[in-house]
Amino acid sequence: MYRPYQAIRGKKGSVAVLDIGTCKVACLIAEEDEEENLRIIGIGHQLAKGMRNGRVISARDLEESILSAVHAAEQMAGATVENVVVNVSGPDVTSHLLGIDLEIAGEGVREQDVADLLREGCATVQDAQRVIIHCFPVEYRLDGARGIRDPLNMYGNTLGADLNIITADAARLKNLANCVNRCHLNIAEFVASQHASAYGCLEQDEMELGTTIIDMGGSETSFALFSNGRNIFSGSIPIGGGHVTSDIAQGLTTSIASAERIKVLQGSAIAAPKDAQVMIEIPQIGEEQEGDEPNVVPRSTLIAIIRPRLEEIFEMVQQRIKASGMEGRAGRHTVITGGASQMVATRDLAARVMNKQVRIARPRLLPGLADSVSGAPFSCAIGMLHFVNNRLPEDMLVEGKRRSGGLGSRTQKMMAWLRDNF
């Protein structure tokens, strides 16, 4: 079991994750039990302020939300958190797919050779405006033979790999890291939100056989394709459940708060024949006091507003997947999670639009997790714990190289600079 840091001073095997989204900030603290399995000991979540589309729009508001969530988790755990794993989201979190080859002169493949291969791949996509978040081997090659899963101790002349390198905008990460550091927290590492959600929701067989996971958040929808247990492509679109709420508020002339409540209680992705006869009361803006006469519309009108936006989300995700060239490797199975996935009939609409088998997922639970944070909106936070607890061998090599300076990671240098200056 490999963990590169301790969340709580002096407590070996402790882990803390911080899920920073548009709608909520969640902090989970866990520690190992006697069998080295993680158990939740601290939970805190707070309405998010200061974030939109994965970008900080008010540092002061975001810091307030982070401090509230972390403080609640610390109070429950009876400990002070120093280091956290933080998620990264936004439309600029991008996959770079490339092939790399390395001459090994007929020797057996060593861990150092694999690390050198990953380093060369990372160097290929390095850019002053981008930060590398992950480097995932899609598959290895040895002397042109493809489909190799683990090349260690195999002999050949040329070791190759197809890599999925995920990067994010450096300025956006610097602003996010600045806020976290000003809350007296050190960032141990960043994790792409869609990758974390996959670890939180997907079964191992789904990762192996080919699956697309779609995480429907408040201001964006992110997705990742998995095959043979590997993340082979990730991306996102800047549309989420908050846009559905905004459409309802505009279409029915009601407040955002009322639109969100109506969406949750009455919304559906697909209309039924009886919906034309079911009437819904719509509080009008400025006329929400008791005794005011609400507007009344059929439920079918509400669904006619919701469905086009959800169709747009699934169509845009499908287009991005097709453009990647990886659609065939991910198969016809899709898993949907996130807060915006909970609307009635979302699964059926996604299956129609994407022509795939679809299931709605809740995260795989850990001991000590309360019911209030065990639903789909917490897939990313829970997934980050599973990610830290179940690393691939390549993650260990990359992490080791980062800490020794071998990968020249600007992320590590940026964090050190922030600690020194704030």
Structural key phrases:
Nucleotidyltransferase, domain 5, globular, 422 residues, alpha+beta, Dna Ligase, domain 1, five-stranded mixed beta sheet
What do these coordinates show?
This protein has 422 residues and is an alpha+beta fold. Among the domains are: 94-169, Dna Ligase, domain 1 (2-Layer Sandwich); 203-360, Nucleotidyltransferase, domain 5 (2-Layer Sandwich), CATH 3.30.420.40. It is built from 13 helices and 18 strands. The chain has helices spanning 59-77, 111-125, 170-182, 193-201, 204-209, 241-252, 256-266, 299-324, 327-330, 346-354, 379-389, 393-404, 410-421; strands at 14-20, 24-32, 38-47, 51-52, 55-56, 83-88, 94-103, 130-142, 145-148, 158-169, 186-192, 211-216, 221-227, 230-237, 279-282, 295-298, 333-337, 357-360. The strands form 5 sheets. The protein has a 5-stranded mixed β-sheet with strand order 3-2-1-6-11, sandwiched between helices. Helix 1 (59-77) packs across helix 3, helix 2 packs across helix 12 and helix 8 (299-324) crosses helix 10 (346-354). The radius of gyration is 23 Å and the shape is globular. The two termini are 33 Å apart.
